[in-house]
């Protein structure tokens, strides 16, 4: 009986430790990204486009290159910055985040984003 209780305790503790290991997330496949991109292009207003893009990213992950290309759809740098800040936690390869800063026309927006990225990645 003691052995059974001891075994059960080890299984519960071991299961808890295994569940805490965070696995790296895979970005969207090419086909999924094409669908995402087309759906992101549809809304005419920037604010609707931003909200739709953020809403579609709730259960997906995106690569830095894909986020850069998606951010190019926005014509206004302010909306682009807001969109990238909201979607950034879903970036799968945060080491390539410098690519996303190239999406901005104004240097000040690029600097704001870079400061935000440095805060997110200690």
Unreliable stretches covering 5 or more consecutive residues = none
Helix-strand pattern:
HHHHHHH
In terms of DSSP E residues, the strand content is under 5%
Q: Compute the number of strand runs.
A: 0
If you average the pLDDT, what whole number results?
Answer: 84
Instruction: Specify the structural class.
Output: mainly alpha
Intertermini distance: 48 Å
Shape: elongated
Tally of alpha and pi helices: 7
Radius of gyration: 20 Å
The largest β sheet comes out as: none
Approximately how much helix is present in the residues? 55-70%
Account of the protein in words:
The chain has helices spanning 2-20, 30-41, 46-56, 64-71, 77-87, 98-101, 107-120. It is an all-alpha fold. It is elongated, with a radius of gyration of 20 Å. The protein contains 7 helices and no strands.
Summarize the helices and strands and which ones pair or pack.
Blueprint: H1 2-20, H2 30-41, H3 46-56, H4 64-71, H5 77-87, H6 98-101, H7 107-120
